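Researcher: Please translate sequence to structure tokens.
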Amino acid sequence: MTGAARGALDGAEDREFAIRLKHITKRFGHVVANRSISLDVVAGSIHGIVGENGAGKSTLMSILYGFYQADSGHIEIRGERVRIRSSRAAIDVGIGMVHQHFMLVDTFTVLENVMLGAETGARLGPAITHARAALQRLSDTFGIEVDPHAICGSLSVGARQRVEILKALYRGAEILVLDEPTGVLTPQEADQLFVVLRALRARSVTVLLITHKLREILAITDSVSVMRAGEIVGTVATAETSREALAELMVGRKVLLDVAKSARVAQAPVLQVDALCVASEGVRRAVDAVTFNVRAGEIVGIAGVAGNGQSELLEALAGIRAVASGQFSVGEHCVTPRQPCGPREMRSLGVAHVPEDRLRAGLVADFSALDSALLGYQDDPAYSRYGFLSYQAITAHCNHCIEQFDVRPADASLRTGGFSGGNQQKLLLARELGRNPKLLLVGQPTRGVDIGAIELIHRRLIEMRDAGAAVLLVSVELDEIMSLSDRILVMFEGRIVADVNAASTTERELGLMMANAHSSSDGNVSEGAS
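Model: Translation complete:
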């Protein structure tokens, strides 16, 4: 354990440790994911773990929960040395885990999901009676309110997360591991989660919280460990640290966390959307009669809980998904169901698209960085003449992309799949932003990107806006939406329910809008909302 880690635990030697990890090392081939990690977690506390992508957080938690086996080192749970070879073994020693993507059967009730795989006895009737009583006791004890007869697929995201917590508690969890628990929650749902976590702590449940959101770490944890390059570089009492200090520990240098931007200068609309509808596989339209515009020199952010039509809207505007009804225009060119426009045509109109899923729709893992940096623009005369590609020009272009966005390693011949997720994202952004588009459609620009690279990406997006580009931004990170956007649209069930000035709204107000719980009389909804 580092000196910083030991310092955070001074005075706690007489307290019981729920978890003690001793010199945990895990290798994947030549890559050392965890390097001799030692970590003590005080029983009945909320302990945070933060770190950049690839720092080793997920690997360490996977070892604790039995998904992976450490190459060396050992684990102690409540003072006893244990061998955790499976998730069942983890459950048996009192460890529960709530995954970022919930493990629920949507067609089952809450009660059925809670008891699934943990039925008592051969007869289902008595097992249901036992589970119902146990669920009620847990709900009363911890203040976790969920209707046991509700179908899980009909519940809000926050309610489904509470079901996952109840599942773990029903199986006897005294240690609860939560992996990025607020990634799909509104601010109000996150606040409700924090109430539950405090209730768990008050009743001596130990919580291990893995997140990249530093504000949440500061709001809810008692202590926090920072990981970098497979090692714990510091463990500190939360009350004695700050967002800036944690970010510096994570990256190894000072990081500018706040986005600096000048006032917006209103210009002519570049994108105009009128009563646009996009179909989905379900009964409800993915995008339902939305109307808005994006002006040159403006960033318009779309806020909303994932799955409310943001992804389908971006894909329709990029020419990937068909328009069911309504229309949209880029400049003078109008797209309707009878006048469709594919991705190639949209690019020719000056539209660049950074898709939300980079490997599904933006890059090809088996291509070299050289090819991925050109993908979609291979017919550009700068790189192709008479059907022949100029690899000298392509190589110069790729090297420029790598340099401008600090892609690591700086190797144009490296297979795209060989880069980390964050560096894949930087390569994709370099390709699209480098075209100086009139309209930039960008989905989840910093997904899987380290905190140091986030600073770079945010600066580049502001530069695009200041150079006169119109930017439509979709992000699940509310902080990102609020700090980058000039104007914010809020989507709920495929419709735009609010259109607000980013500078004059609050996170709480946006959260209410995202849940469609705001009132149109509060003055926040502009005339542009549909």
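Researcher: Any highlights?
Model: The CA atoms of residues 44 and 204 lie 4 Å apart.
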